[in-house]
UniProtKB/TrEMBL annotation:
Superkingdom, taxonomy of origin: Eukaryota
Lineage of producing organism: Eukaryota, Metazoa, Chordata, Craniata, Vertebrata
GO molecular function, one term: sodium:proton antiporter activity
Protein name, entry field: Sodium/hydrogen exchanger
PANTHER family membership: SODIUM/HYDROGEN EXCHANGER (PTHR10110), SODIUM_HYDROGEN EXCHANGER 6 (PTHR10110:SF94)
Entry annotated with the keyword Signal: yes
The keyword Nuclease is assigned to this record: no
InterPro entries: Cation/H_exchanger_CPA1, Cation/H_exchanger_TM, NaH_exchanger, NHE-6/7/9
Length: 697
């Protein structure tokens, strides 16, 4: 009432308004103080509590800094040891296996060598609730405190809460792997993809990646379901483990990551087609495994029992697989196209730092956008990388081209070695491991048989339609090279809430360790055992193959014919629209589209009309990226198969044979740095003699 009178009187005079407002505020403050009287003792306790809180925050900050320092020191030690191994030419252990060993050592020290004194302020109280709440409000002497759920602690670890907290500090949130560490690895795989050998074996790669992964998933799932049933019969199963869990395990463990084998393949210069089959399968296989595991999780039959078979639910899961994969693919390609258009129609190339930053952010945001839309970021960022390499790369300035390649190469190297170091650390720091000997033995057997069911039957079927056969020793090598790595680990650690998922995660750690150390370390011996040629000069090998009539026809049909329509459409329409390269659209579009063609064609395309050559030859090689010198005549080819002599004249009779030769010379350099492909041009190769044409770089 008094407050209302004050407001009414303040309307009469501006001078009294300010006075009454001050009186009102003073009254409210006095009333607040009177309502909550505090004694000097309470004020002293409150001050001490604030000091303790600040001290704990400072200690937590120091602990977090020390945890990150551990991983940085692990990477530093790994890099120095890698240099020593490369200097001494040690091939029995790859850098990823070395990172895992260092992670294991640090994990043992943290688990058994360091103990944190117990905090005397820790209090244990009991209350009965039906479920563990994510957030808990605790009333302590009239003050409410908020506590968050960190995880379940077994009864025998109640007295070791501080040690558990220290180990939990070095256990990262699984979303860190998916949102921060995986995107640069997957993007780099697509951004550094070498096209000629990949497209030459595209049919086989797609068969291994799609059909092979599905076959492997179901073979492993069925075998593991039999193992789980056996465990239940002998009373070795400590929780629920359904058939869908077995299929989910088959999906996540079917993702291959043969980085160790591929690095050794490059160093020893193994056959390029074998390299392309393994690399192409691993790139697409990861994407298929992610979508397949999501589809299995989404399997929900009608009714109370969600683990029974139902045809409609199976069809829904299959439809989700197709929808998620196609949606992720479209989103990744669309992001790459938008980036290409932005870099083409703006002057960003005049500001190289802004250009590189935009490229980096657009590429990374593809993963997050796909995940936010309910798609799969792995698929989206993979095809975004392929699109960026094919189109956007041509629009970048030379400085930004170098920066983007080096940036993602560096991020890929650091992220991959960080993950493998963390794998070794997690073996001892993870709090909820479930190691079951029967399940582990069954998993190793199932993984072996699942890989065999992927490689051998599909290779037999593929050889029925291939002119260039996949030889038996190649099949044995591909079977041996089915290593598990970062993707299997990331999919396993993403959900460890149930007994089944915890046992999958613990078992997959052992599977990754075994395949990286044993299979990766035995690659050189396996090559010798299978009598696979090493030290093969790709250019000489291909030049010899194209001189033979049957091999020349094979190269022509497998490398060119299947993609002739796509190359023609891409070269005549997509490249001119999205990049500064390719023929002007005014020469390829109908006359009625003249205004649109002039608008979409950049001035650089008119300037370079006489030399239609892309600028991405050191990253992605297109058909027009080859110049061959035959005596005094220079012959080049474009995507349509047309050849120019001395820049303008067409070569007629020998066009097909010359195209075969040029495609054979396509992958002139193939350089492995770290664990993934980068493809710089190398001028140090000696020119060929004999009757074969000389490659002019």
């Amino acid at each position: 009432m008094a407050f209302g009178v004050a407001v009414g009187s303040c309307r009469r005079s501006g001078r009294t308004r300010g006075f009454l407002l001050l009186v009102s505020l003073s009254a409210f403050i006095s009333a607040g103080r009177a309502a909550s009287p505090s004694s000097p003792q309470e004020e002293e306790d409150s001050g001490m509590e604030n000091i303790v809180t600040e001290k704990r925050a400072e200690e937590s900050h120091r602990q977090d800094s020390a945890d990150l320092l551990i991983f940085i020191l692990l990477l530093t030690l790994t890099i120095l040891t890698i240099w020593l191994f490369k200097h001494r030419r040690f091939r029995f252990l790859h850098e990823t296996g070395l990172a895992m060993i260092y992670g294991l050592i640090v994990g043992v020290i943290l688990r058994y060598g360091i103990h944190v004194p117990r905090d005397v302020s820790t209090a244990s109280m009991s209350c009965f609730v039906n479920a563990s709440p994510a957030t808990l409000l605790v009333n302590v002497s009239g003050k409410f405190y908020e506590y968050t759920l960190k995880g379940e602690i077994s009864a025998n670890e109640v007295n070791d809460v501080q040690d558990n907290e220290m180990l939990r500090k070095v256990t990262f949130d699984p979303e860190v792997f998916f949102n921060i560490l995986l995107p640069p690895i997957i993007f780099h795989a697509g951004y550094s993809l070498k096209r000629r050998h990949f497209f030459r074996n595209m049919g086989s790669i797609l068969a291994y990646a799609f059909m092979g992964t599905v076959v492997s998933c179901f073979v492993i799932g069925l075998l593991m379901y039999g193992c789980v049933m056996l465990m239940k019969q002998v009373d070795q199963l400590g929780g629920d483990f359904f058939f869908t869990d077995c299929l989910f395990y088959g999906a996540i463990v079917s993702a291959t990551d043969p980085v160790t084998v591929l690095a050794i393949f490059h160093e020893l210069q193994v056959d390029a087609d074998l390299y392309a089959l393994l690399f192409g399968e691993s790139v697409l296989n990861d994407a298929v495994a992610v979508v397949l595991s999501s589809s299995i999780v989404a399997y929900q039959p009608q009714g109370d029992n969600s683990h029974t078979f139902e045809a409609m639910a199976l069809l829904k899961s299959f439809g989700m697989f197709l929808g998620v994969f196609s949606g992720s693919f479209s989103l990744g390609v669309a992001t790459g196209v938008v980036t290409a258009l932005v870099t083409k129609f703006t002057k960003l190339r005049d500001f190289q730092l802004l250009e590189t930053a935009l490229f980096f952010l657009m590429s990374w945001s593809t993963f997050l956008l796909a995940e936010a839309c309910g798609f799969t970021g792995v698929v989206a960022v993979l095809f975004c990388g392929i699109t960026q390499a094919h189109y956007t790369y041509n629009n970048l300035s030379p400085e930004s081209q170098d920066r983007t390649k080096q940036l993602f190469e560096l991020l890929n190297f650091l992220a991959e070695n960080f993950i493998f170091s963390y794998m070794g650390l997690t073996l001892f720091t993870f709090q909820n491991h479930v190691f079951n000997p029967m399940f582990i033995v069954g998993a190793f057997l199932a993984v072996f048989l699942g890989r065999a069911a992927n490689i051998y039957p599909l290779s037999f079927l593929l050889n029925l339609g291939r002119r260039y056969k996949i030889r038996s020793n190649f099949q044995h090598m591909m079977m041996f090279a089915g290593l598990r790595g970062a993707m299997t680990f990331a999919l396993s650690i993403r959900d460890t809430a149930t007994y089944a998922r915890q046992m999958m995660f613990s078992t997959n750690l052992l599977v990754v360790f075994f395949t990286v150390w044993v299979c990766g370390g035995g690659t050189t011996q396996m090559l010798s055992c299978q009598r696979i040629r090493v030290g093969v000069d790709t250019d000489q090998d291909n030049s010899m193959s194209v001189t033979d009539g049957s091999e020349r026809r094979s190269t022509k049909q497998e490398s060119v014919w299947l993609f002739r329509i796509w190359y023609t459409f891409d070269h005549n329409y997509l490249k001119p629209i999205l990049t500064h390269s390719g023929p002007p659209l005014t020469t390829t579009l109908p006359p009625c589209c003249g205004p649109l063609a002039r608008f979409l064609t950049s001035p650089q395309a008119f300037e370079n009309e006489c030399q239609l050559k892309d600028d991405d030859s050191d990253l992605i090689l297109t058909d027009g990226d080859i110049n061959l010198t035959y005596g005094d005549v220079t012959v080049s080819t474009d995507a349509t198969g047309a050849h120019t002599s001395s820049g303008r004249g067409f070569v007629g009779a020998g066009a097909a044979d010359e195209l075969d030769r040029e495609l054979a010379y396509g992958d002139h350099e193939l350089v492995m740095r770290g664990t993934r492909l980068v493809l710089p041009m190398d001028d140090s190769e000696p020119p060929f003699t004999d009757s074969h044409p000389h490659l002019r770089m």
